[in-house]
Design a protein that fits this description.
91 residues, alpha+beta, two-stranded antiparallel ribbon, 2 strands, 14% strand, rod-shaped, coiled coil
């Protein structure tokens, strides 16, 4: 609940806000409902951070595998070039 900025009234009070377009008050909800929604929002925010960290970790792993494959490919290319050079010397 640390991301809530305001202290809400008791859970039995229904909160309203003025709606200038309609000329009346709009029901926001009981403070307990708002707290529940805010907690869910905070949890979603945290899970978003967790998801981003997991994606970052997967990206780093993929980059390492790509670098390893590039190194292997480079070594194989050098070996093929060496083999071709030896074959041309034997001819």
């Amino acid at each position: 609940m640390s991301c809530l900025a305001a202290v809400l009234p008791s859970s039995s009070d229904v909160l309203v806000r003025p709606d200038n377009r309609k000329g009346r008050n709009v029901r926001i909800g009981r403070s307990s409902e708002i707290l529940h929604g805010a907690a869910a929002h905070c949890q979603g925010w945290r899970s978003g951070i967790r998801r981003n960290r997991e994606l970052q970790r997967k990206l780093e792993t993929a980059n390492k595998k790509t670098a390893k494959l590039a190194t292997e490919n480079n070594n194989l290319t050098k070996a093929i070039d060496t083999k071709d050079a030896l074959i041309s010397e034997l001819k």
